[in-house]
Structures
1.
Amino acid sequence: MPGSRKTRADYYIGLMSGTSGDGVDAVCVRFDEGAPRVVLAAHSYHPYPEPLRQRLLALMVPGENEIERMGVLEEQLAEIFAAASSEVHRRAGLAATDIAAIGSHGQTIRHRPRGPHAFTVQIGNPARVAERTGIATVADFRRRDMAAGGQGAPLVPAFHQWLFGHATRARAIVNIGGIANITIIPAAATSAATQGFDTGPGNALLDGWARRHTGQPQDTDGRLAACGQVYGALLGLLKDDPYFAAAPPKSTGREHFTSEWLDERLRRLGRDLDAADVQATLVALTADTITEALAPLAPEEVYLCGGGTANPVLVAAIAERLAIPVQTTARLGLDPQLVEPTAFAWLAREAKAGRPGNLPSVTGARHPVVLGALYPA
């Protein structure tokens, strides 16, 4: 808001295009260290055009001619990211010169965090974003952590710790995007380290199954799942994947939990199930793997964020499995849909200040590192 800005270049833009692959969330914010707190100037959401989204989802699964397909999508996404950035600062009544930097996560199309040649790929050319907007852009946040021996994900726990930490209570922040991840923030009065990792599928399998059987991009309000019943034999086959039993640090992506991954387990089941029963079982998979990951970490409070908070059936399933109240981050002052884009605005600020943005206790990196590469305006 023009009247509230303190100095030139006091604001940051954050862009998050997550593993759901449905669009980009943009925020324009500044950060108050005294509280700490986030001052939100404006936010917006830009859905991907459906033909682009279908090509993007196809690129997330290994296939043919990937370099050519990636190159085209890289530039198309950059144009969307640039337009989202320009719109959100104008919506806030701010000029490009009022923005210190854009933090762009980019669109993850492949994440292979294990093995001797671990790698990760996010697209959405930040050079084009900087050129189109006239605003310095920080991007490529994951690879420096991986170079230091880390998983490169999840990266938002450092921001969770900064904003949501409590003096005397251990808190869990559960982000439910295409992939779900948890952050456990110990009480500040203790010497324990913040922990976090990807628990497995969040919305990715739910969205894919709903799209196949309803023609809609997601199971709006959990309506399909609400009509079904959990099928225990299928749930057992799904939970038998070795990822769930692996010890952290760990991270994963769509290239692991694909529609083909689900179809293969349905074939092993050897019988046809009603589409609603499969959807209900996928809700149980997400809820089980989140709450089973939380159980040994014993948080005193649980707060949800991400697109999954819009699914009341999923939220209820998580709450039923926990003995403590479940709320969203709105209770802590930040809209659950805006936590991740705000985290990347914050990580851009940390990068510009030369401060580390990773938590080795989360990613497994050998040491803290400054995350991201700067593309000047």
2.
Amino acid sequence: MADLVDVSFPVEGILPKKETCADAFITKYPEWNGDGTLIAILDTGVDPGAAGLQTTPSGKPKIVDLIDATGSGDVNTSCVVEAQNGVIKGLTGRNLQIPASWKNPTGQYHIGTKVLFELYPKGLKDRILKERKEQQWDPQHRVALADSIKRLENFDNKHNGNSNLSPEDKCIREDLQAQVDILTNFDKKSVDVGPVFDCIVFHDGNTWRACIDTSEKGELDQCKLLASYREEHEFGRINNSDMLNYSVNIHNDGNVLEICANAGSHGTHVACITAGYFPDKPERNGLAPGAQIIGVKIGDSRLGSMETGTALVRAMIKVIEHKCDLINYSYGEASHWNNSGRVCSILLCFITVECVP
């Protein structure tokens, strides 16, 4: 049976061009590769670092824009401060060292904070929580618990089973027992809220830029400085443990920072099916490798990647603003009433179907 295994599966085999007759169309019309077409991917978000989503065959950026329509990545950066001796105090209380390479003619910085776990997909959050517990919490907690138990045992041994304790000794023993009880309960009931990052936004004289203190130490020269994605098509990575890529958009004169990070892998998957381009391995190409895309996140990371009506409305506004030619929307749940409700009415207002004879 091993001789019958299709060695191309599951790499090329997961894109069934043959079964859908797409390969016949591509063979017949090789020049029709989607060049000049803009496709909106309404989904969990699209990873800007994914293979196949870097450029088109003509060298244009594959991803035109990345947008979080859910609000899960929004940061209030309306607090404005000025640096003192090259340092600003973040809202976390950390001292943030301003790199000498930053250009800020006004000297003003918009600051805010973001809880990292609000950006994580559920699977990633579960993994990181487990790793943090095993690497950071458990070793120190076990030492503290063992030490408190030992102190209590030593006290009991010294006082011969606590038969005739003075009032003062009783208080001491109750305190030692309370320490053991509290540390034991901590292990069962503690909640890890995750890292909290300082966020900095400023205008460099030409455009708005943002930096997220992923160092958690105020060492901003070690962190990525980004403009809105549509301007420079740059992105950063939180760290090498979570491998979560992110981009930013800046709104309201620096008062709102939008951090775009995927709520799951589905959006990247369908983006590659739609328009992935692998110059060295064309068999992996999507159906329209020449097309460009915008990734619009409608799956809220705070809701387990569930979409909301608000996110869909915002997404359609962006689709119209970008004058997209097509929308890929393989997302959603069953509805009680078909083709009804606010979202459907807005979709019908925005979408025009043209019949070509």
3.
Amino acid sequence: MTDFVLPYEHRDLSIDQQVALRTAAGNLGREFTGLYGPETIERFLHSSYDQFASISCVPNFLPLLAERFARQRLQALARVEGHHRDGKPVVLFLCTHNAGRSQMALGFFAHFAGDQAVAWSGGSEPGHEINAAAIAAMAERGIDITGEYPKPWTDEVVRAADVVVTMGCGDACPVFPGTRYENWELDDPAGLDVDAVRPIRDDLERRVRTLIDQLGIPAAKG
């Protein structure tokens, strides 16, 4: 496989970060062999890194976050370009900070739909971390969202979605013809304690269950 070379603007990174990014590029290269070459993978990986570098306060995790986000974006691009046809519906949950509402919705959707559908999330102004009260409220339902992270949305991710659910991002939410859109009016859990987040969580659970029914997805879990 062709060696991945860090672009010039990333040469001020530490040696550990450079090694981590090269490892990430190699992982993605093997995963998308036959679909995308080194140049495309580098472009997605490093643009993903740049997006997180502007908002993250934990630089040691940036290469890992960049790899995860680049993988999602490349998977989305493959769907947009018709390289991936598994027939699974794709749902994208969008809110402002991608730290509360959209993450809880994603957690419920993944829990109930299992591997019968694909769910992603994003934010117009991604925060630094998932809302602690949202994490605690979801844990009460037996759903762990601590493995998620706030992230922006990109054109290929939105274009790959069959359904885009917006929650409070207003005019910032992208609109593409041919995509089904739903706007869920819900309070923002930012700054609220667990007691105040529970009604938002319960409302989201009802809405997600309804959406899964509408999409004809047999619930993987009750």
